[in-house]
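testing teh design pipeline on a random one, pls ignore if ur not involved
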């Protein structure tokens, strides 16, 4: 796995946004897998800025979001569909018909999950999947114990995830305990994966994911099986990595290698 350690969350967002912008412009990234949460927000802001400055168009790009709360309509402020519309889709030229988020209001969630998988396949798979990481090592809403071969399905959220996400809900608001999420197998099918981690709250999960054993106990550790993962972390999230200095060294060598042979 490529591990890129940046001095700040701002530098993480710059790096990830530039990677996405270049990939979309070069038409390498035609189908994006997108994530919610606070970590990717500055990335989306940079994509919006690039669109406003006429540096990019998303008119021919399709998107699939990782997950959605079961029971929340698209109009609910905390639904992930609302989040994506608000922060990215409505501010750019994405064709809404090409943006997919699991249907939180489905009356047949099991079939909706199967349809979601089928739609991903129909569009030729995901070119690049953006991921955050939960403090318990979850990706999407694949909580500890998730099958490493899982596909899109309904998951029960852990107490910790419910607590971590409670800050987004009003005290009297119903916070769902179930979610629809792409599976770990679905995520591993993406051609490229970009995982972002910022802040000291993510340091333990990142260490387990990168330097611990592959285990359903830390769902993100399954990414060790993927051949094209780039983990982009700020110093705070990278603080517990035993190999931190080596990752910095490798990245420096990588940049020199690219400059020498490919520019
Ligand atoms: C939620 C999402 C995840 C996300 C995680 C971390 O649980 N389902 O996809 O990675 O939150 O969120 P944050 O970036 O706000 O820490």
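output:
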């Amino acid at each position: 796995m490529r591990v890129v350690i940046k001095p700040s969350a701002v530098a993480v967002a710059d790096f990830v946004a530039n990677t996405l912008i270049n990939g979309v412009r070069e038409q390498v990234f035609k189908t994006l897998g997108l994530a919610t949460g606070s970590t990717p927000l500055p990335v989306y802001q940079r994509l919006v800025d690039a669109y406003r400055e006429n540096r990019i168009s998303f008119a021919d790009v399709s998107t699939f979001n990782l997950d959605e709360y079961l029971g929340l309509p698209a109009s609910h402020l905390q639904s992930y569909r609302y989040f994506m519309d608000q922060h990215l889709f409505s501010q750019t030229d994405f064709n809404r018909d090409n943006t997919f988020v699991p249907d939180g209001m489905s009356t047949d969630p099991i079939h909706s999950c199967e349809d979601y998988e089928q739609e991903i396949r129909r569009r030729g798979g995901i070119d690049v999947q953006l991921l955050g990481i939960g403090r318990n090592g979850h990706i999407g809403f694949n909580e500890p114990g998730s099958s490493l071969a899982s596909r899109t399905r309904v998951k029960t959220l852990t107490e910790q995830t419910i607590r971590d996400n409670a800050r987004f809900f009003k005290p009297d608001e119903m916070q769902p305990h179930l979610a629809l999420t792409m599976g770990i197998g679905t995520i591993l099918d993406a051609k490229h994966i970009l995982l972002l981690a910022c802040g000291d709250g993510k340091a333990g999960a990142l260490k387990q994911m990168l330097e611990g054993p592959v285990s359903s106990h830390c769902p993100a550790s399954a990414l060790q099986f993927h051949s094209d993962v780039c983990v982009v972390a700020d110093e705070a999230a990278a603080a517990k990595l035993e190999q931190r200095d080596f990752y910095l060294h490798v990245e420096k060598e990588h940049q020199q290698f690219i400059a020498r042979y490919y520019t």
